[in-house]
Amino acid sequence: MPWIAFIVHFFAAAIMTNGIPHFVNGVCGRRFRTPFVRTSGGSDSSAELNVVWGWANFVVAFLLFANIGPLYIGTPIDTIFVAAGVLVAGLLLSRIFAGKSV
After folding, report:
1. Pick from 56, 50, 55, 19: nearest CA to 33
2. Do 5 and 73 form a contact (C-beta atoms < 8 A)?
3. Per residue in 71-81, pLDDT tens?
4. pLDDT (mean) for 35-53
């Protein structure tokens, strides 16, 4: 598999990780930040918008996983890239959602 596929899988995992908090908060009926609110004093987005935003992230991640080289979880290199994408995105998102600078 070409190296570009591993890089794309890293970003697909990061995008998928970004969709999780939006989708979960939306399904639970809670308001949550999305890119569609003003960062300077804006309020959180509606639960419905968060469900749609989380779903859109999942669709983009799926398309990247499905169309850019096959995803072989279980092979060491692909597993490492996907796990790294989840970890890096999770760490960055935890800082963003906590209100700390990245």
Report:
1. 50
2. no
3. 777 788 888 99
4. 80
